[in-house]
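pinned: reference chain
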Amino acid sequence: MHGFLLFAAASASSSHNSDSVVTADVDPAIGVALHFPVASRSISTQNATWEKFLLESSVANGAVCLDGSPGGGYIRRGDPNKWIIFHQGGGWCSSDENCAERMDTPLGSSKNWGPTYTDTYEGSQLFAMPPFSTYTIVYAMYCDGGSWSANADSPVIVPMPGGNRTVYYRGRRLLDALIDHLLALGLKDATNLLYSGCSAGGLTTYLHTDYVAGRMPSTVKTLALADAMFSVDHNSFDGQPLYPERMQWGYSAWNSSASVNQECLAAVAGTNRSDGWKCMFGSTAAQYVNTPLFVLNSKYDSWQEKAIIGVNCSIQSCPRDVQSFWAAYSDIMVSKAQALPAQHGVFLGNCPAHCQTGISSWEATTIDGIAMGNAFSEWYAARVAGDNKPYRYIATCDIKPCGTDSC
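pinned: its structure tokens
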């Protein structure tokens, strides 16, 4: 099969108004868009009722957004036995000052969240696809800046031009509050849970899937989907540790050691856990996730373009030396994907994209004739049925789609 591997015996604010599909929000630390304008078929939310919820009762336990407001999200009630939890993306803080600035956006505060879900960029294609279109779906809003991993007891006082700001790093407490709330709403009686997210929400999936699965009653079968952030610990084209440096800062500032995958932490963190930040790379963490997980990523991810590779060109338009560097980076992604535990599935293509569960890639991108969404759906059905064949759809050529593959 040309360019295909199937292992089987196969800003920073995100706008939430009804008229917008997505905004090109920019991370001020590195000038990288957190979300990208995309051309995709519109997913109407008008025929579904999304209820907003806030975790107000958990504020007293310290479960708060960066600004101290309650966390929460939106729920679309469907089949009470089958649930999706989907974590919103939106980048990460890169300094105390950056986190303080983020407090004035919906990615750091719940004060201006709208009354209903309107984001058709993240997850919407998944939500509209049978059988998931009938599930009870929870869209978990992101407001802690650290992929729900932060757990610092004391708030940080940050001097800012307008005066001191008080910043709370409490993502892990928000996660606990969210799961407690959903279990009480009926998740404890479900049979199936798909735990998922995109971008920073994808990293959330890598970090917390085993923990969340462990919080479920034994009668709930948990599977996971990580959309983007199968990232590699790697310097940029210019030799700068752009993303590694950010994760090192965050891991320490957020007090995230108890929140990353604990098997990963034991394996790579060292005796004093100082290297635990390495578990905040999806390609590292995924090796230690026990819950069946589907990895969805582009080898030439349009967010990694600036944030990790450190360039300003899509792979096919980059200079030849950049293409060679980026292709070598993507080869590491491929080798790490091929080495994942057998229960995990993979769709790793050459089409530049980021957060593909809510854009046209879900239907349009193919590897050896199978569309991305169908590849995930087949893997999911197999795992629900107890079939553990490792479905791996991996483009093994470089830069352009392989053979008859399409974008």
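why pinned: The first strand starts at residue 26 and ends at 27. The chain has a mean pLDDT of 89.
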